[in-house]
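As a representative case, we now present a protein record of this kind.
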Amino acid sequence: MMDIYQLRYFLAVVETGSFTRAADRTFVTQPTLSAGIKKLEQQIGHELFERSNRRVFLTDAGTRFLPRAKAILHECNMAQQVLDEAGKTPVLRIGVLTTLSNRQVGNLLASFREKMPNAAIEITDGTEQELENRLEDRSLDFALSVHRGEPNDVSIALNNEPYVFILSNDHDLAGRTRVTASDLAEEYMIVRSRCEVLSETSRYFTDRNVRPRLVYRTPNDSRAVAMVAAGVGGTVVPQSLVDDRVSPVRLIGFDHERRLGLFLPRSDLPAETLVVAGAFTDHVQSQWN
């Protein structure tokens, strides 16, 4: 197997046209460089240079080998550059609950990047349990998820938001602010399969002897809202998922809310990340409290 230093020797000879000048460029003695070239030729089974007293020339094999050698060395240099840059740039690994508003999270991260433009951010989507597992195995630094009363050294409580029922803007009930379960008895229902209050929603209608017809089930909240906007049916969402395509109404007797939380690192962070981590913690609290 050829070594990187052999490719460097080979390209130095090509560029300088001389073993002596190539040795000077690569900071080795001429015998060392010649031995490296000879070893490379033995490994690939072809002579790469025709040698004369004054200059060396590429053989046909050397000419064919040249562009590949340049490409390999370029990729190696790029790989080293990526590693060097990664070592200098603080990287913040953030988990985001799949049911959080894309717009809300996007605005949060955009305003944070304005404050810390040199920080790199890696985002991972997941359920509550998936994010918890990643925090435990140290593959995430922070997570934005639902706060369920965890102590302050585990999760910082952020803002509350209510759940509402959304309908298409042209729906007959869209102009009302509050509806009852019986008002929705004949309505089609879209199920957000990852909704945190899915069982509570089902119980709400069952306890009132109302069983709306289920027409669509999806883990994709954006798709669910789009289907509501299209008039396929209605669904329960946290307030932050409401946009101008749909109309929210409150379900009388359905007073569930969710509190968001910033889940903190489970171990000490690298020194180069501490400043960014502190700035992120402060920024989230200022924006979502």
